[in-house]
Amino acid sequence: MTRFSKPHLAATVALGLIFAHTAVFSAHGQATQNTFEPAYFAQYAPRTAGDMIAQIPGFQLKGADDRRGLGQGGANILINGERLTGKSDINGQLSRIVANTVVRIEIQDGASLDIPGLSGQVANIITKTTGQSGTWSWAPEFRERQRVNLNHAHLTLSGKHGDIAYTAELRNEARRSGNWGPETLTEADGTVFEIRDELGRFNFDGPGAVLDLKWAPNDDHSGNLNLEYNKFNSANITRSSRRAQTARGENLETIFTSGEDEWNAKIGADYELPLGSGKLKAIGFYRFERSPTRNAFSTFALSGQQLNGSIFDRAADEGETIARTEYSWSPTTGRDWTFGVEGAFNYLDIESELQVFENGAFVNEPLDGATSRVEERRAEATLTHSRALSAKWDLQLSGGVEYSKLEQTDGLSRNFIRPKGFLLATYKPDDSTSWRFKAEREVEQLSFFDFISSVDVVDNIDSTGNVNLVPSQNWFFGIEYDKDFGQGFTINLNPYVSFISDLVDRIPIGENGDAVGNVDSAMSYGIDFNTSLKGERWGWNGLQFDLDIQYRDSQVDDPVTGVSRELSRDLKSFWHARMRHDIPDTQWAYGGGAREFADHKGFRLFTTDNPSLDRPITYAFVEHKDVFGMKIKAELTNLINSRENFTREVFTDRRDRGVLDVTEFESRTFGPILNIEFSGTF
């Protein structure tokens, strides 16, 4: 497998900077582009605002779905100068904005806006709805050893009635995937004692409906309402045929099935109005999710007789309610203040049941800590100040405090008070260059599932719930360099470091217990690099290259061995290179790309694991933009037969006491994938 090492990273970044310096002279005197009008996107025949955003050189879309509460900042997308409502998926919201309603897209610097927490490049999408319009898409997918997926489709409708603009969407996010291949079990001395032939099939359907309403009775008042309902239905099965190679191996057949029948609903609303010398904005959000799941693992003799098995059932109800108020005022030009207050109530209510196969039947087995309820009540207050220090410097400062109270069924209750805040500064020596500096004190969001015990039925590992878990906090420091050389050539370089306290990781409990817990301190650091390059400067009209690179490293003292290591299953590296050519004066386009990831090793009490790819995933596409008014894009993925590898090391005892016992190596192919997308507008 091709690995992305520190020397590779240094060479890549150095090459990019040399290329950038060289291009400074060739691009000297050329105007940069910060506003993109519909004519710029015409060659791509976009259907939605998401299609348009994807074609802006150097712009990286950043969502905010996993942030703690509504908070400050959020996604780096504005609609007519306003933040998106609630915590909906950013790609989903962009897909509901019909391209012909977009007047222009402005790329602005977050620190220069009067919106607390926004940093880096921000896309402000200016829209105007005058009539009714819509989009549709249907994307059948063909994969080896899988049924044809005919269920992936979207339909949106937008319009305006009086002072109310509306967008509605019906959709089904559907997947039919799978993989197959061998797994070998090897003793510490290298002897293969068992070979498994495995086949997995994974099916998912996610039908949903969304309604977005915006009411703007005048220029000073505006309100938004977002309603969303989704179902997530998954059904997965993995079959394994085990063949012994030595006396230690077994001749067995196993079946693992898992499934979920979830539904969830979301409501988000906000209203802004003038008050005194400023503006008052009230924001509300509510989400509820019901998720019954089942995981079952059974072992059979070659004769077909069931030997053993286990079933783990879990019914989870999750809820989140958030109310936020922001008051903003500007005493003088270039100076803005925002005071924000937020309250939230989150909960997770779980009922679990474990059954094991004994004497020819499944019987209930007690499982401590697997049925429980966790609640969090949280409040925060923040004060943010933005000002233009000069024609070249913008500054944003924010300080605040958060109070939270965690409670669980057994009566355990804990209170926390934590400071939070940030400093954002932007230096623009000229219109084409930006330097951004960020320092932030962050409080991360906990997963309440970590408070409650669970069972891995495949590996027969119990995960003990940890009622003493607290959210991790970190000091984040980052520098971002943006350069636009004109004619579609941009680079972005972003090194960063985080100093983490109360890291959430796996820790030992007692002699042989294994749970998610807190580690006192850790550090994470990395660098992101991306560049876009259009071919117009060399006469290759319609051609564009994009390259994204991420590299990350980290350091923490292993809570089991005490030895320094990387963060468990943290991203190590990722790169994605892609090309697109829209052939001038035709309706044809083609392109392709390659991408690859690598993660750091994962650590548990008795095991380590590491997923990887044996080679990059490659793809190619061809597109025609007008076939009886439709756009048709055919994309073939996995051209060079990449395989998904997984290595698991099992020790004779805890990793601090035992030695390597067994190495499991799984290598699965997933074959070529053909996706044909038909899309249009009306």
Question: Could you characterize what this model shows?
Answer:
This protein is mainly β. The chain has one domain: TonB-dependent receptor, beta-barrel domain (Maltoporin, Chain A), CATH 2.40.170. The protein has four helices and 36 strands. It has a 22-stranded antiparallel barrel. A five-stranded mixed sheet has the order 1-4-5-2-3. Strands 21-22 form a two-stranded antiparallel sheet. The longest helix is centred in the N-terminal third of the chain and has 21 residues. The protein is globular. The N terminus is likely disordered.
**Structural class designation:** mainly beta
Helical percent range? Answer: under 10%
Which ranges are low-confidence, i.e. pLDDT below 50, for 5 or more consecutive residues?
Answer: 1-32
| Number of beta-strand segments | 36
DSSP strand content: over 45%
Intertermini distance:
47 Å
Mean model confidence by pLDDT: 89
What is the CATH homology-level superfamily?
TonB-dependent receptor, beta-barrel domain
Please, how many helices? 4
CATH class: Mainly Beta
**What does the overall shape look like?**
globular
Number of domains: 1
Whole-angstrom Rg: 27 Å
Major sheet description: 22 strands, antiparallel, barrel
| Shape-level CATH architecture | Beta Barrel
Q: Assign the CATH topology.
A: Maltoporin, Chain A
